[in-house]
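Can anyone check this?
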Amino acid sequence: MAAAIGSSIGKSLDRLEARDKVTGQADYTHHLRLPGMLYGKIFRSTVPHGRIKRIDTSAASALEGVYRVVTIDDIRKVIPNPYYGPAFHDQPILADGKVRFAGEPVAVVLAFDKRIAEEALGLIEAEYEELPGVFDEVEAMTSTTLVHDELKPAATFPDLAHLKGRKATNVALDYKLRRGDTERAFAEAEHVFEHTFRAQQVMHTPMEPFVSIADYKDGHLTLHTASQGPSFVRIEIARLLGLPENRVRVKVPFLGGGFGGKLYIKLEALVTALSVLVRKPVKIALTMEEQFFMVTRHPCTFTIKSGVTKEGKITARHCEVVWNGGAYADIGPRVTQKAGFTSAGPYDIDNVTINSYAVYTNRPPCGALRGFGAPQTAWAYECHTDLIAQALGIDKIEFRRKNMLREGRPQASGTPLRDAQIERAMDQVLDRLQWAKPLDRGTGRIKRGRGIAIGFKGITAPTTSVAIVNMYGDGSCGLYIGTVDMGQGSDTVMAQIAGEVLNMDPTTIRVIHPDTDVTPYDMGTLGSRSTFHMGNAVRAAAEDAKSKIAALARELGLPEGTNVPLSEMLKRRYGMQAGNIIGTGSFIPDYEKPDNETGQTTKGTPFWGVGVAGAEVEIDTETGQLTILKLVNVADVGTALNPKAVRQQLSGAGIMQLGHTITEEMVFRDGQLTNGSLADYKIPGLLDMPVEFINEHVPNAYDKAGPFGAKGTGESTSIALTPAIGNAVADAIGVQLTELPITAESIYRALQKANGTPLAEN
């Protein structure tokens, strides 16, 4: 059903929480202090792989002001099986017998003064028997150095239920997709192209570092935490403690950014174990530097091969993607599966083979980060696309049009393309780039180029969202949802959806922050799912409330469509201002589990995420210095429920991905992180911003399954941006870079190599 004329749908409302945030009144977990609370500071491993021979905590324990020093032996007294994780129960709350990456938590100092706890860390001594480490994902595939002796599947999610424990391997998951006869198609192809691309390890860098507080009393636990998934945290903590879920309460205020890093379970297991152990509230807040050791984005190596006719039709594609998951799986198997799902790109190819591997290494753990692996795969398949078109002498845009997936056609997995505006988004980018006009290519040492790329993503499925609408006695409304507003403006959009159904001003609706004792289940705020999933649940809950209001009117003998306000109806019903109207709604999209052998399914994603990016760049060939003159991001978001919020989302995604493209990289040497601070790890600054930066959505788009035609926004323009810049750089200098990030040094090295004067490696 389309939005009504004059409705709040499609209006650029200010965020409901804007005033609280700009005046400093908004609540964050970092602000919270509980009576008798202890602060925890983490002692970390200095070696990437080794058996723990000795931990001496005596000097730290003796320091005045230290309450207790805790190791895994202490944790086992309250949690006999202290392992957790969403895909595998493979991560110990503290290092158990061995360490698997440099920076792994080994012990915790507790004190009432966090400065004393910090001082005591320097008094702990640990001795390790160092073991060989494996750090590269491709080497780890066949290495005899094993990060884990066995795997322990969690069986939490239906799409990962098939995972089984393995021995004598570092492979946590091998996802495969088979369509058609790829070998035959390659044998018959007139041209075959193969390229390998690598993406680097980066981190989330939210403004608010990880922080959690646990308060265990009388068999009940309350967690105050910076989490994107409070419902999952409750489930996992209840499992660890052997408690029913109604004895575990998880409260989440505003988040200062998350981007996937604060999903599933992070610090919550550790603070819970500590609070149960000492019977006091315990708070751990990481520093910016410590975030490098909590969770990061997967590096990957992607080898892509395509068979093509002389006319430019892709007839076969083989994708081999190896994901470096670090020491613990986190949600890496799902990243491997979902990113592997679309690694053939947004193209109509009859014969496809995909192998996607989640691999353990002795690096910090990797998990979800904006795009869920799609930016890494798009970097490969869209640069590969340009290279093919160039080799065949075919226009790059026409090559894409010739091979593009169209409405109703099955994607490589067998799931048809529905309501995905790929070509419209591309045409909009071409228009904003003035692609049809000649480009000033520069003179002398200055070279200019432009590039375009398409991003394509399947959404995590199956997942569930539940919402409650509470109409109070005076006719006002409270909306109870588990969606976490971490800056994306979800509270405002959900109020707009409820307000549209209930014919209420959305700015008068109060959205209740996630509190698992109060707000119902939601799988998590991730993967561009909230607008679509929770939005549908909110709409259903509001319609349920609306139907109950209509039933109350009939009970009171009022005519259909009465103008009598709800507050007056409730007074007539109860004789005073009293009572509530409660509407509930839930949503789970249609889903068909992929075949384990072929990956084929007709319902693999609830909707398709589409974003197209274009870039115009300038390069100083004597230094390799890159200047982005123009950057255009266009996303298909279906109906833009709040256009201003959409533009902000697209801009934020673009800037974040810009950092992952041109400045950011976690640099390791023998397993040791060498740039673990924001002084050395470079996120984009103002001087890195494009001279012209355009962020738009496709107008008049509509997703028939979404609430009022809407679908997710947060990741759409993070997917295509990197290959768009990479293709623009190649267009400028005539050399395609295949490794990220694209820096002045990497450009200069590529130029020197192309000129026959390669530079020595560092």
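Reply from J.R.: I decoded it. The first strand starts at residue 38 and ends at 44.
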